[in-house]
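JOB MANIFEST
job_type = single_chain_structure
chain_count = 1
residues = 297
[input]
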Amino acid sequence: MTPPTTPDQAVPLAIWPCAQATAKTQRAGRYLPATSVHPAKMLPELARRIIATSSKPGELIVDPMCGIATTLVEAALLDRHGVGVELEPRWATLARRNLAYALDPEHAQRVQIVEGDARALATLLGERAGTVDLVATSLPYGCDISTLDMHAYRQGGSSRVAGTRYYSPDTANLGHPRGPRYLQATAEVYGACATVLRPGGLLVTVTRNPRPQGRLFDLAAATVRLAQQAGLVYLQHVIALRAGIRDGRLVAPPSLRQRINTRNARARGVPVHLPAHEDVLVFQRSHSAAEGVVGRG
């Protein structure tokens, strides 16, 4: 990958089919069943593609919002080293359990979980700050999110698993702020990511455009702007399909909540469709101006 030579030049675009097998199938037997309670998990196939295409064996991968540790599991299995940062003790504990379940002792020693705020990433990494080869992560999308309690939903009760709305009741969690506060917090995270990357290191972030109050917000474009403000160079845009490809057509395997949200939106006259993709955005920390930007071979 090489960066655009002029500000108005388009970056390369790629499409990754990441959901030929469902998310449940991708995790079956490889991840703890208890991890299903987390409200927003990266597809294992997507994590593998990011790591395989953006790093080399032996390199250091960091996920500043690691959730159940999908990125770390896939990084270890691809012979990378990894550090996952997680603000919420509940998810950090589950992430550690997941690593012990998914990895043999040899691979498990390659990765670790650190509890703390992603905005303090350099402090949390200590002497490893500035040496990170790849930051691979997915920040909250600035939308209402929680895990659906299927049994309670069918019984007419609360449809949310307790403590999963916005990831946590803690308002310090990035799942809570909206509008300018959300963008400011997100900018701080990307600034922290830029600080810990080595020169030439990559940030790969996964996002999706939400619809607050029914109006589409171009979070992908906002992410590009915030990462560039942090001093990173925009290299590539990838469309990661969360829909399967069957006979040349996209077949979305939506969750019950996505079906409910889509049905309700259509009832209000909003012509939305089931989500079929996520935006994967690739950035690079440049070398000094004298050295120029160097792409990865």
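[summary]
The first strand starts at residue 13 and ends at 17.
Confidence is low (pLDDT under 50) at residues 289-297.
exit_status = 0
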